Amino acid sequence: MGKPLKVGIIGCGAIIAQYLASFRRLGDIQLVAVADLDPARAQAVAEQYEGVRAVSVESLLAADDVELVLNLTIPAAHAEVALKAIGAGKSVYGEKPLAATTGQARKVLDAAREAGVVVGCAPDTVLGTGIQTARKAIDDGLIGAPISASATMVTPGHERWHPNPDFYYQPGGGPLLDMGPYYVTALVTLLGPVVSVIGAASHTRDERTIGSGPRQGEKVPVNIDSHVTGVLVHASGALSTLVMSFDAVKSKSPNIEIHGERGSLVVPDPNHFDGDVQLFALGADAWETLPVSAGYVDAGRGFGIADLVSTPQGTEPRAGGTLAYHVLEVMESVLESAHTGSTVRITSTVGRPQSVELTVLADDVDALQPQEAS
Q1: Of 149, 140, 229, 143, whose CA–CA distance to 186 is shortest?
Q2: How far apart are CA 105 and CA 322, in angstroms?
Q3: CB under 8 Å to 84, separation ≥6 — which residues?
Q4: Are residues 314 and 337 in the same domain?
Q5: How does the average pLDDT of the chain come out, rounded?
Q6: What pLDDT score was predicted for residue 2?
Q7: Distance CA 25, CA 240 (A)
Q8: For residue 249, what is the domain's CATH number?
């Protein structure tokens, strides 16, 4: 209707800063309220931004001026908060994953359908120029029919830098459910839905040591698989190999490679919105860096919400709940296969999200500018 979408945020942890940085630039979004189980954290956010109030979770859910709830809670709470927001008649956009399990995620989607509200979910990094330029190269036939892909994420663990890393090592966390959404969402965006998976996993250590912050030196128990490998069979016939690790130190391999009959693509880190896409065409002598040709320019976390605002009513958002559910089922099934030793069929499907034309979506706006110090 030409008015900004009024948003309330539940969860004021570390990731909120990246969303707020985007919201300052997005005229289609107006942040009106923030809430956190720790009221001091919500108050600290509200004090920095004019027109934003710190309230309780209950008050935010009941607020008439909140149209969409941005759910930035820990993964274990994603479904609970989403269902409460939907029950209050609000649309929801959540951090990844959509829920800790597909069972919980299905309840969220079913409740949203019955309530007539919209569900969106991170990651929206796939809407940036990096993944979208690679998508356009594939769609334009630069590599011919895709044959395979590899996606690699290797880090010795988030406890080295995160002051409160506990949730990364509990159910709903781990390298696959934490970082996998970026990679699997990118693979589905590039190559289409997955029909079956095979997985293997290992658990290297029973505890981790926090490396920074006030809890430095404290031990954190590990109750998840900390190194996961999977093979994804796409409906197109392409095969993707996935390696997600909180155990290994470093990888020199590209984040994602796509191989086709007529060429190969190096795709930039799907945890970021931009980056170079490189093509090695059949018969070429060297890699070629492709010009930026698609995606939201200079995007950041929260652009998926702005994209949702512009999505026609009745149409699934690009960073929508159906895609997030499919990605979650793929990841959950990789872990199931790792534990059973059997191939797991994927019961859900999703169309490749509509591509994003090269778009400058946002300029600096006055909304959410930090208050001048008195």
Answers
A1: 149
A2: 10
A3: 57, 61
A4: no
A5: 94
A6: 65
A7: 36
A8: 3.30.360.10
The domain in which residue 239 lies consists of: 125-295+323-345
Based on C-alpha coordinates, what's the Rg of the chain?
20
Q: Which residues, other chains included, contact 314 with Cβ-Cβ below 8 Å and sequence gap of 6+?
A: none
Q: Are residues 156 and 92 in the same domain?
A: no
pLDDT confidence bin for 141, thresholds 50/70/90: very high
Sheet containing 146-154: order of strands: 288-289, 278-281, 263-267, 256-260, 146-154, 239-245, 227-234, 194-202, 344-345
Q: Is the link from the previous residue into 97 a cis peptide, with omega within 30 of 0?
A: yes
Peptide bond between residue 317 and the one before it cis (omega within 30 degrees of 0): no
pLDDT bucket at 172, cuts 50 / 70 / 90: confident
Number of domains making up the chain: 2
How far is residue 91's CA from residue 93's CA, in Å, rounded to a whole number?
Answer: 7
**Residue 352 in domain:** no
Closest CA to 331 of 210, 130, 208, 172: 172
Do residues 195 and 337 both lie within one domain? yes
